[in-house]
Amino acid sequence: MKKVSSATVSGASSPDNQKPITHNQQPKTHNQNMNKRNITIAIAAIVVIGAALFFFMGKKKNTNVGFETAKVQTATITTSVTATGTIEPVTSVTVGTQVSGIVSHLYVDYNSTVKKGQVIAELDRTNLMSELNSAKANFSSAQSEMQYQRGNYQRYQALYKKGLVSADEYESAKLSYDRAVESVKTAQQSVARAKTNLGYATITSPIDGVVLSKAVEEGQTVAASFNTPELFTIAQDLTNMQVVADVDEADIADVKEGAKVTFTVDAYPDDVFQGSVTQVRQSATTTNNVVTYEVVISAPNSDLKLKPGLTANVTITTNEKANVCAVPVKALRFNPNEIMLSPDEKIVNCDAKNKVWVKQGQTIRAIAVETGISDGTLTEIISGLKAGETVIIGNKSNGMPNDEESEEEKSTNPFMPGPPGKNKNKDAKKK
User: Fold this and answer.
1) What Cα–Cα distance (Å) separates residue 247 from each residue in 64, 82, 89, 298?
2) Is the torsion defined by CA of 20, 26, 29, 34 positive or negative?
3) Cβ contacts of residue 390 below 8 Å, gap of 6+?
4) Which helix (H) or strand (E) holds 22?
5) How buried is residue 200: exposed, middle or buried, by Cβ count under 10 Å (0-12/13-18/19+)?
6) In this structure, are residues 136 and 188 in contact, taking their beta carbons and an 8 Å threshold?
7) Which residue from 162, 187, 241, 412 could staple onto 299, CB 3.0 to 4.6 Å apart?
8) What sections of 201-307 are H helices per DSSP?
9) What does the alpha-carbon distance between residue 127 and residue 92 come to, in Å, rounded to a whole number?
């Protein structure tokens, strides 16, 4: 009974307990909705403020702070082409031998100074003397035979006139005599040839100069066949050298005889040598599908610094104009846009192939110009500008964040780590 009574009391009191609970839950739900609405409004306000800040900050960032300018100047503009070449003597002679034999004596060595006609080497004369003596003996024998045949022919001639010998006998005697005469001539030529060969055993210098190379040693056998053996190379004058440069086919049209040339060699990297174009050879050379032409350049060498075979880095002047109006190449490449301008500035363009920009008050105006030669730094202005005028070559703030600005912005953000070396850049700027 007690248990049932408890259940009844509990059931009777249940409605009273549920009513206050329902009454208390209604205000709580209303407050939650209000909080969500306030949060949404706050987020929207933050977004609007952020967008406004971004707009105004971006607008400020794109504001131009000025243009970089340069004066139209009077200058000398030079154009050139580059090439590589080899230092060579103007005149060099290869000395060989016409006969075979053993080198018995050498009288010169590398870098020896020689005179024309000076004996520089000798070959062994033994075999050559034997050939000469044999030729002389044959010549003497041929002479004796000729004298005999002459006497025999004279006798037959007298007998034939008297009718004592036949015509055949007379003609046979005459033929033998003619053959003897020809044999004497042949033997005489053999003697002369043997004397000449004996003379070839003494090798002399054909020019005044310096020995550049020596290809033999004493005791060495040289064999003369169809090709003459090369014994020495002699340069005539090392104080007057030349550079043979290979110029690309794309540049050869601009290279003229008499053009100024400067060149350097690796042996003397701090020295700049002067020269001029003396010859533009018409024959082309093709190597790995690259076509080049040989250009000969004079190279005075009074101090004998230039050695045969050195590689020269050549700069050939193709055009040179003095006292011309010129602007930096950047002026012709500059092209303004609205981002670069302040709110008060405007752009006035023109339809021209080549143009530069000038600032006239609050107006950025394009000026049409006629250009000439350019050396990559300066460009000649033929018409459209005068010396002393100011042109725009760039803007100091191009309206786009550069790397340095971005890094500075990042460094101001406490949540963004700075880039490596940032402190070093600051220190460098302070210095």
Assistant:
1) 47, 8, 20, 16
2) negative
3) 69, 70, 71, 72, 358, 359
4) helix 2-61
5) middle
6) no
7) 241
8) none
9) 32
pLDDT given at position 65: 53
Cβ atoms of residues 283 and 292 within 8 Å: no
> 330: which 2 tokens?
């950047």
For residue 51, the model assigns a pLDDT of 63
* Residue 238 near residue 302, CB atoms below 8 Å: no
Alpha carbons 108 and 91: distance in angstroms, whole number? 19
Quote the CA–CA distance of 239 and 299 in Å, as a whole number.
9
| Secondary structure (3-state) at 318 | strand
Question: CB atoms < 10 A from the CB of 296, how many?
Answer: 19
* Cα gap 234→246, rounded to integer Å: 25
Q: Locate tokens 């009844």: which residue?
A: 8
In the numeric block, the tokens 């403020």 are attached to: 49
With beta carbons less than 8 A apart as the criterion, state whether 375 and 77 touch. Answer: yes
- Residue-level pLDDT at 431: 40
Residue 343: what pLDDT? 83
DSSP 3-state helix, strand, coil percentages of the chain (rounded to 5)?
35, 35, 25
Q: How many CB atoms lie within 10 A of CB 261?
A: 25
* Helices vs. strands in the chain: H and E counts, helices first: 6, 21
**What is d(CA 402, CA 389) in angstroms, rounded to the nearest whole number?**
30
Token pair for 96: 């060989």
Whole-number pLDDT of residue 66: 78
Q: How many residues does the chain have?
A: 431
Pairing of β 346-348 and β 363-368: parallel
Query: 202: which DSSP letter?
Result: E
Average pLDDT per block of 10 residues along the chain, 431 residues long: 36 41 47 66 72 53 68 94 95 92 94 95 94 95 95 93 91 94 95 94 94 93 79 93 96 95 95 96 94 96 94 96 94 88 87 92 92 93 93 72 39 42 41 40
Contact between 297 and 275 (Cβ < 8 Å):
yes
H-only helix segments in 163-246: 167-200
Q: Give 153's strand partners.
A: none
The tokens 């030669």 sit on which residue?
373
Q: Are the C-beta atoms of 67 and 394 separated by less than 8 Å?
A: yes
Query: Do 96 and 234 meet the contact criterion of CB atoms below 8 Å apart?
Result: no
Rounded (10°) angle between helices 422-430 and 403-412: 110
Show the tokens assigned to 137.
């003996």
Residue type present at position 152: N
Say how far apart CA 342 and CA 362 lie, in whole Å. 9
